[in-house]
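We now fix the convention by which a protein and its fold are recorded. Here is one such record, which you should read through line by line:

>
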Amino acid sequence: MSERAATFELLRLGTPRARIVLLAVVLASTLTQLAGTIVNVALPSIGEDLDASLEQLQWVSNSFTLALAAFLLIGGSLGDRFGRRRVLLIGVVLFTFASAACAAAPTVEFLIAARALQGLAAALIAPGSLAILEAVFIASDREPAVGSWSGLGAVAAAVGPVVGGLLVQSGDAGWRVTFLLNVPLAVVVVFSARWIPETADPESSGLPDLWGSALVVTSLTALMVALTSGISGGWTAGVGSLGAVGLAFLFAFFWVDRRAAHPLVPPALFESRQFVAANVVTFIIYAAMGGALFLLPLQLQMVAGFSPALSGSALLPVTVLMLLFSARAGRLSQRIGPWLPMTFGPMVAGLGLVAMTRIGPGSSFVVDLVPAVTLFGAGLTLTVAPLTATALASAPERSVGVAAAVNSDVARLAGLFAVAVLPGLVGIDAAAFSDPGAFDQGFDRAVLACGIVCALGGAVSLLSIEPAWSEESSPRAVEAAVDAGKRPHTPDIIPTRPARHRVR
């Protein structure tokens, strides 16, 4: 593959071009976040308008997440090979088309299919957004950039459901307009992308492992269908066989990928203990969060009697905390290492989830909801930037796109798994879906379990995450420190010469 090689000087936060790049990346990531969060507020209205069952509503959520998780590795690999900016833009255009299809859905089955197309497009966007931050900013600004990305992205992800809630209660089909909120954001991303330097892995060529890609998609689809069907409808022989096929295809993927000329996931990634540990913690925390936040809007509207708009406002305290403190949490982690934030953050977030057991019939937004969500948001703010930065910094720079895809994939799979299995495990079935009292009891069990699991993520961090950044946990920071003649853990590491990347 012939390329016109060029170099560019790494960007510094605060410069005009860096602000535009950060805006474009945040808005691109926001598209995928809105698709995952705003639909939860609209689920009761979608169910009523399209006459959908609880299992179908699970698939309205899960079809997006499943497609996103199944194709994330491919998206990250394509970005590393053919250019992260190029692949991101293709994803944005496809995502806009899929959003319009969701808005026009005549049946719940059509909506599920359109949501799956949204997920495929999001898989092209999500890994590229993080990989671009790692590739174009100086070493000392990467973690603060990730923190800003987390905070600003959280603003859009939380404000979106508020606006969506207002649109939902504006009319019988107001939920359809919520899917069109992505269109103006996509236009801004496309316009701003010209300022993003094009980066790619100079040693990657050709197509990713197509056999491995097919095995991943088939495996995850079979496993999620089996889990959802087994928990809700019983573990029949057919469901068990489907699950066995999914597991067999998953093991086949790892076998094929290790032997592929261009593997989707380079085996060297998993030689880093910190990379493996960060992804284990990611799965635990995002499973707890995904399960609780899927059920929360249903609890607020069906049991507590909140309006869609008020329900959409439930996560505003999380927004405010992440906006104000995510970048600071990133800088704090850069100074003291990721261990303490990743240990105590999930524990605090877990307490917030447990406190959500207070939400029920006649609950007060201020007295019962806000304190629980604020505690949850404080823990999440401490956790997200150090967790993401640890996962990315533990990977070789040439594989940062795939590393971002793996970490995003783990997070999505965790939420997908929780949404598929949690309702059935806590007794929320089709009967409970139409009985507010039974749903309330199931919700209490669900958030209690999610709180315990989230705190467990902090315990795993305590035992597995390095107390400070090390050569293993942050190889690029070490390289930059050597270049600058400074100690590896100095927070203001700045390379003395521009880093080189392949640029188009």
